[in-house]
Design brief:
Keywords: Membrane, Transmembrane, Transmembrane helix
Organism: Streptomyces davaonensis (strain DSM 101723 / JCM 4913 / KCC S-0913 / 768)
Largest sheet: 4 strands, antiparallel
Low-confidence stretches: 1-18
Strand order of the largest sheet: 1-4-2-3
Distance between the termini: 52 Å
Protein name: ABC transporter transmembrane protein
Radius of gyration: 28 Å
Number of strands: 4
């Protein structure tokens, strides 16, 4: 009689804890992860402080000097230490969000991609159970999720402070919605630029395959991109034109272009008429104009810039996958 062995109905318990590429990435780059979490926590705490105690202290300081009595003195346009602390918390958070693409690109090019290609860790993973495509996908997806979560958190908190304390900033008159760092920090563009930095860094690391050159080139490339896109920002949406006959028109917004108007409607530079009573008449100047973006253009400009930045990031990611496939062939 042939013995029949019944198959086991149970399965051996698998190893506990997270496994796979995500866990490996978090372990290998845990220093960068902890630094990012601490940075987000630090500036999130600073923005929450500015929203509550910081703004309250700045207002109290302002009122204690008699500036809120309706008869302001000569010192009311000078900020005190309490407002300086409030303004520093707001300004530093915006500056960090504006510089994030540079840091992310340098890290992605040098540590995330370049170092692993340089020391052979990536190729070791490819010849085992991880394909190059899965490897690059994990390298991009995990940092992208962490960057998006952190940047959106800081953006929401920055908008909270900005919307709540508008009267305070209007009173002191230091910052405007169209300032570079303020504009980025108050919308979706800051997150898009961070993702662009990640994509540019990954592509640079794949191109150079060495950590230090990739770090430097990726940072410079991100700097050049952010600078150029910032220069294009005023032209991403149609401007409004303000015209005045006696003096330069008063506008509250981003000035794109301004000058003088002749009787034919031609636009000319404003002449230097210091001490010349008939200067404007002799030059046929009949008025002045200013092409500008009012505050209502914030979201059109923001969304246009965000779309362009994300499109560039997608192109960089596609180029990175194409380059990886070209170098590894059928292994992808």
């Amino acid at each position: 009689m042939t013995a029949v062995t019944a198959p086991a109905t149970g399965t051996a318990p698998g190893p506990r804890g997270p496994r796979g590429l995500v866990w490996v990435m978090l372990r290998v780059h845990q220093s960068a992860l902890l630094f990012w979490l601490m940075l987000v926590a630090l500036f999130a705490g600073g923005l929450l402080w500015a929203y509550g105690p910081g703004a309250d202290a700045a207002w109290t300081e302002y009122l204690d000097t008699g500036c809120g009595s309706g008869q302001p003195g000569l010192g009311c346009d000078v900020s005190g230490p309490a407002y300086q602390r409030y303004d520093n918390a707001l300004g530093l958070s915006g500056a960090v969000m504006g510089l994030a693409p540079l840091f992310v690109a340098a890290w992605a090019g040098g540590a995330l991609i370049g170092r692993e290609l340089e020391n052979g860790t990536a190729r070791l993973a490819w010849v085992q159970s991880v394909s190059p495509a899965r490897w690059l996908t994990a390298k991009l997806a995990v940092p992208a999720a962490l960057l998006t979560a952190g940047m959106l958190t800081l953006t929401l908190l920055h908008r909270l402070v900005w919307s709540a304390d508008g009267e305070l900033r209007l009173t002191m008159g230091w910052r405007a919605w169209y300032d570079d760092n303020i504009f980025l920090a108050n919308g979706t563009a800051a997150t898009a630029y961070a993702l662009l930095g990640l994509a540019v860094g990954a592509l640079t690391g794949l191109l150079l395959k060495r950590s230090l050159p990739a770090l430097a080139v990726a940072g410079l490339a991100a700097l050049a991109l952010t600078h150029q896109l910032g220069r294009w920002r005023p032209h991403l949406w149609t401007t409004e034109t303000a015209i005045a006959s006696d003096d330069y028109p008063e506008t509250v917004g981003m000035i794109v272009e301004g000058g003088a108007l002749t009787s034919t409607g031609a636009r000319v530079p404003i002449p230097d008429c210091m001490g010349e009573p008939r200067c404007l008449t002799d030059r046929d100047i009949t008025g002045f104009y200013a092409d500008h973006h009012p505050a209502s253009h914030f979201w059109p400009l923001q969304l246009m810039e965000t779309g362009i930045v994300l499109a560039l990031a997608a192109i960089a990611v596609a180029a990175a996958f194409w380059l990886l496939k070209r170098r590894t062939g059928a292994a992808v």
